[in-house]
Amino acid sequence: MFKLHNIDLYQLLGSDPEVCLDNLVGLAAQISRTPIAFLSLIDGNRQWLKSQLGIDRALAYLYLNFCARALDRTPKEFAVGSNSNSEFDGATPLQKPPVAPLSAIEAPANSFKEPPVVIVRDASTDVGFAEHPLTVSYPFVKFYAGIPVVTSDGQMLGVLSVMDSVPRDLTKETIAGIQALSRQVASLVDLRWQLLKAQKHLPEVEDITSDRQLISELVRGSNRSSLCGEHTPQSGTRRYPSKKLPRLGGSGKSQYFWETSAGTGPSPDTKQTREIVAGARDTSERQPTAASLEERARLGSLQAKVGAALGQGGKISPILNRCTEAMVDYLDAKEASIWTFNPQTEQLELQADSGLTTEGWEREIKDWVRAEPGKLETAPVCLLSNPSLRAIAYPLIVEERLVGVLALCSSASASEGALEVLGCMANAIAVAIDRITAREELLSRREGLLFGLASQMRNSLDLDKILDTAVNEIRSLLQVDQCYFLWYSISQDGQQSFAITHEAANPELKERLTEYPIEQVTLLAEKICHRQTLRIGDAATALCIEPPTRDFLSSLGIFSNLLLPLKTRSGQMGAVVCNHYSSHRSWTTSEVELLQAVVDQLAIAIDQAELYAQTRAAALAAQTQARQLTETLQQLQQKEAQLIQNEKMSSLGLMVAGVAHEINNPVNFIYGNLTYCKQYMKNLLDLLHLYQKHYPEPCPEILDKSEEIDVDFLVPDLLKILSSIEMGTERIRQIVLSLRNFARHDEADMKLVDIHEGIDSTLLILQSRLKSNGLVPGIEVIKDYGNLPKVECYPGQLNQVFMNILANAIDSLENQPPPKTIKISTVVVDPDSEAGESGKSSGQVVVIRIQDSGPGLAEKAKCHLFDPFFTTKPVGKGTGLGLSISYQIVVEKHGGSLNCISKPGQGADFMIEIPVARPPALKE
Q1: Which among 190, 160, 70, 179 is positioned nearest to 114, based on CA atoms?
Q2: Distance from CA of residue 343 to its chain's centroid?
Q3: pLDDT 10s digits, 758-796
Q4: Sheet strand arrangement including 347-355
Q5: Best label site of 250, 445, 774, 918, fewest CB within 10 Å?
């Protein structure tokens, strides 16, 4: 406890906030990277919270209780306690704070230079803190570190404490930095006490100064008649009698002092001094005291200024620039500079420079660093050989790593107190540089990760790619053994399940978590449903999970686990999970914040991907509907054209059938009576021959008539006429039969027919277009018929196919030079034969090939050859329906195939494949 001349610590500092102490507490939180830090003070009457960061003042008594309980623990208790995560760091045993006497402070014999550090690594597993309100409820404190604030003579003023909600530890460098801050607090208190004492003696000093001025004026301005002195050899003084001088205070502390005697003392009636006894006294021993106080006050202000600068956030250059400006202002330095060390380039980079620029300053600093790489000690090194300047440099080292250099240049040498303060500030600046660099690197990687996810979202909106990138980047950034994304779903029967969809894992892991048992899904699903972050530093001792879950994680070798749930707008739930198998890991707040930002970004990405998928589905549905409408319209147009064509063909068939029928009747009459006519004519000629035989000499009238009609010519010519009539009648009969065969009006069902008859009938109808006409040469038809069986087909429709293909071949040959040829070949092939290309039929197939020597077709025209209304003929000459209808007849009605093989300049080859037997799929 603290008591100085009956002035307690509370009266000295009070409880009002102070910026300098708030800055030191903030700096302690940043150095230790904890969300909570506070300074508690204690004197003989009370304990109170002086400065705080990250705590609720309504709960201040709980934090003070936690701190007091940690300080009351003895090293022995920590050594034999049930939890090894709570202990004292440092070899010095914790002692009860000594109580200062009522007189001035005297350094006790058992005073110590460095206070011990109290560390509770995991309060949830420590028997002394497991049931503490701060441990079991908000803010769920797990880690505590307290550094007592102790004066140089061993009196404890209070405790500088830091807390975190995750189990963790502090490095030696971090502890050293916080201890330096605790010393700054003690120095500040000491300065306040010295200032209080100075203010208390201020009236007395003013009186002494006034006496001194009066005596000096008396000595300088009085004449000898009014002032004479008497030398006293015994005391070395000289007595000056005077009646004008007012009485001086008899404090005995002035530079001049007076003595009285029976004969020369003050007058009893006037109280005036009759003589002054003045003697020289050396007061130089008092002057260093004032200068020392002034220097300590200035150094304290410097430390507060630097601490405030380091405690502020922002970029590293402005922070360090405020530090160098404070050094120049408070240390009367000509120049102060701070460099940071770049490990990639192994070069110093100037971050802050204040004061006047000194020539050769930066070069010598860099030469010094380059000359001693890796061997720099945390001690000042003098630079610059100029005797008029004094330069000092401090290597800024953290965990045996050079992070920068602090250097000052002044015209006078620095005092021991200034060197000590500079050393402390160098340590604090080194820690701050390392912290800011790590923070900027972490923020850079965090921003890179978030920017990468945002870029993935903008570029592709591919959810699989986004999730895969996220888990890989998280694992690379946090250096975890496994990171994966899982979906949480509930089936219709209410069964819960996890599905790990994307994973990034250490390839050296022999076993890892790949699926969750049903019982574990039930336990973890509650946290996902309630959007609770699960942060496990040590799975074996974690109290935030149930024992079955702890056993499950331990059985898989998982030491640490971090789960952050997410929920999309559509209600889907999932989580990003990080597992560490190699060792325990304390998840820092910055890591959790980073993952939370990633999870938030993923939730946005999933929402956008779902919205994009819904938009695409709607667009696809609209496109599908539009395509279906287009196809329906095309089918209707095609059906309409086909109906029109069928109606034309039906009308043509009816007309052809009627004409054939009308022609067939008289032709049959003529053809049937020709036999009798020939027989009658033969009988009459035989009778004529008998008359000529038995009556060789006819009468003159008969002879004249015989000569007139030329009986000798008439008899053989009459026989020829009858033969010609018979031949013409036969030809008419064949034409009528071909017309009936082509029309097939009475054959709407499938029948067994001869394919060759249909081809020949078509050629017969097209005969007029095949023969030569004047100067236009004819077209030669080459037939290469195979031995075909009768084919089950629709003969009328198949004849229409032959008509369309042959008519197109004749059209293509109209303007071609000779030779003009059309080759028709037929063959029967087995389904496994190479000649059959379609492969649709399981039985024999008849292949009809119609080849012409025309100009051929371009590839673009061949792709649309069987499309409705597509034609290569001039406008008005073709409808574009012939081949389309032919394709439907062959493919849809007969289950065959119709293909065209053509190249420009090589003619066209149409291949028709018709199954011999009707395919089963076409049978009703």
Answers
A1: 179
A2: 29
A3: 888 888 878 888 888 777 788 889 999 999 899 988 887
A4: 347-355, 335-342, 401-410, 390-398, 381-383
A5: 774
